[in-house]
Amino acid sequence: MNWLLVVAGAVVGAPLRFLTDRLVQSRHDSVFPWGTFTVNVAGSLILGLLTGAATVGAASSHVQLLLGTGLCGALTTYSTFSYETLRLALDGARFYAAANAVASVVAGLGAAFAGAACARGLWG
Questions:
Q1: 49 with 107: CB under 8 angstroms?
Q2: Residue 91: helix, strand or coil by DSSP?
Q3: In the chain, fewer beta carbons within 10 Å around the N or the C end?
Q4: Is the dihedral angle over the CA atoms 104, 109, 112, 114 positive or is it negative?
Q5: Burial of 24 (0-12, 13-18, 19+ CB in 10 A)
């Protein structure tokens, strides 16, 4: 049963990642990977909120599997982040590569912490 929850979340997360990435990237005339950056930060926020909710008992293990493992697992993408950062560096856009690496880590962690804090405020 648990694996069905993961699959159900991924069925939503994967197309949401693709569509969000394309929509965001199409609005920016830049080599910076704004689409991947956006889905990764959004996924970090959702996962932080979910983790905070679980910590205070407001989210069950089933919700964690559905949204955390399934949705966020398919929505976020470390491999694409790594590939795009490497491509930027190899193509000579070293500033963008460094900015992507630093901003992704800082914004992702910040979003996770903000999500957890929101959860504590809502359910703690």
A1: no
A2: coil
A3: N
A4: negative
A5: middle
Q: Are 115 and 44 in contact (CB under 8 A)?
A: yes
Residue 59, phi-psi category: left (phi > 0), alpha (psi -120 to 50), beta (remainder): beta
Longest CA–CA separation in the chain, Å: 48
Per-residue tokens: 56: 């205070």
Contact 60, 123 (CB under 8 A): no
Cβ atoms within 10 Å, residue 31? 15
Both structure tokens of 44: 């970090």
* Residue 54: Cβ within 10 Å count: 18
Structure tokens at 83: 């590939």
**Helical axes 94-123 vs 34-55, angle rounded to 10°:** 30
Q: What is the pLDDT along the chain (124 residues), one digit of tens a residue?
A: 999 999 999 999 999 999 999 999 999 999 999 999 999 999 999 999 999 999 999 999 999 999 999 999 999 999 999 999 999 999 999 999 999 999 999 999 999 999 999 999 999 8
